[in-house]
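During the second year of the project, the team shifted from modelling isolated chains to modelling whole assemblies. The rationale, set out in the original proposal, was that interfaces cannot be judged from single-chain predictions alone. As a representative example for this report, we include one of the complexes processed in the last quarter. Its constituent sequences, exactly as entered into the pipeline, are reproduced here:
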Amino acid sequence: MTGPPEALDRRAFLRRSLVTGALAAAPSLAGCGAAPGMLGAADGRALLERLERGLGRVRDVPRGRVARELRGMARPQLAEDVLRHTLESFVIADVAQSVHRAPRLPAALEARLRRELPVLARTSDVHQALLRSMPPRARRGLDAELRADPSLPSDVAAWVDAHAAELGTSHAGRAKLRLAVRDVDARMRRQSASAVIDDCVGKVEQVSARAGLQATPSAGALMSAIWNQIEGAGHGLTAPGRAPPLPLPDPDVEWAQFLDDHDRIWSARWASPGDEEVEIGAILMPFGAITCGLLLIVGLIVLVAGAIQNATWDGSPRFDP
Amino acid sequence: MTRSAAWLLVAALCAGGCASTITTQPQLVASSGGVDPDTYFAHLVWTLRLRGYEIALLQPEQRRVGVCAHFQDPETAQRGAHRVAVICSPIGRCHIVPLGPKVEREPTRYHLPRPFADELQAMRRSMDLPLSPGGPPPVGERVAHRPCQAQ
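Output from the structure prediction step:
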C-alpha cells in the first residue's frame, strides 16, 4: 500500500479493481486450512505486531491520496474506501489464518482481532453488494476485458500479491490467494464472469440466510466467526445490523468530499468540452465565407477589368477630356 | 443590413450554445413564521423524501443534506443523476447547490445544463409544501455518503 500508486495506469487499475472485487467476494478466495498447534506468547506477540504493522501501512496512507490517483473512475472516493477495507481485510484474514486452529489466543491478540472484526464484515458486505448490483452492461464489459486480455486475472493476482507482500502477509496466505485466483480464472474461462459472479453471490446469500450470529466467547469461536465471514460459510455475513458499524468519518471531511466528488458525464451531448465551440465555429464560418467571398469577387472583377484595359492599350498616351 | 446581420448572428449563436446550458441565480429557501431551524430542516428532509429524492448524504447536526436528482436529457433521451446539496444556516435559510458534471459554480451564479436547471426548479417548488400541523417526522440518523443509483 505504501508503493507509489502513481505507477499504476488508470485503465489497468480500473480493470484490476473490477476483477479484484470479483475475486475478493468469491467464497473460494479464502478456502484454506491453517497451521494447527498451540500458540505461544512469543508467537502471539509476533502475530500482533504483524497485524499492527500491516494495518498501520494501510491506514497511514493519507486519506484522499488514492482517490486522487483514481480521478478517472466514476467514484474515486468510494473506490479508495473499498480498496482500503479490502487490503485491511487481507491483513486481518492472514493473521486469523495463522491462528485458525489454536485452542486459545493471547488476550491482547484476541481483543485486537475482535476490534477488527467489523472491518471484515463490512468488506464482505460491500463486495457482495457491489457484485449483486453489478449491471449487465458492466458484466459484459468485464467479459470483454477478460477475452481481450487473457492475462488479466494473473495481472490482478500479481498486483494483489505485491501489495500483500508489502503489507507483511505470510507466504502461505499469499500462495492460497494465488490458488484462489487461478480457480476463479479457470471458472471464468469455462463459463462467463457473470455466471461466476451469480454463483458466488448466490452461495453467500444462501449461507447468510441460514443462521444468525452467535456469541463468540472463545478463541475458536472468534476464529470461526472470522472465517465464516471471509468464506461465507457461516453466520450472519449479510445480516443487517449484526456487525457493529465502522466509525463514521469526520462530517466536515465527508461533506467536502461530497461537494468535490466528480460524477461521470452521462449525457452524450455534454461529453466533449469543445462541442459548443465547434458549433459556434460552424455558425461563424458561413458569415466569414460570405464576407470574404464578396470581397474576392469584387477584387477579381477589378483585376480582370484592369487586365483587359492593359491588354487593349496600344501604348499611346491617354488624356482625360 | 448590418443590424439584421447582427441579429442573425446572435440568434444563430443562441441556437447553438444557449440551448444546452443556462445561467441561474443560486436557489434559496427559508423558514417563515418563526419556525425553528431544526424543525424547518426536518421539514425539508421529509419533503425531499416524500418527493422520492434519494438521500446521498445526511448530517442532521450540521443541517446538511445531499440528494440525487434523476432526470432525462430531452435531446438524447439519456437518463442520469446529478447531486444537489442543501445547506441550512442556523437562522433557517437554506441554500440549494447544484453539483456534478457540467456545473460551473461562481459566487453569484451557476452555469448548468438546462434539464438540470428545470429539475432544480421543480425541487425548489416541492420544498414549498406547508408544514404539517403535528410537525415533520424526525430527520433520523446520519446517513453516510453513498453514490447515486444509476437508472
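The two ends of chain A are 98 Å apart (CA to CA). Residues 275-312 of chain A form the longest helix (38 residues).
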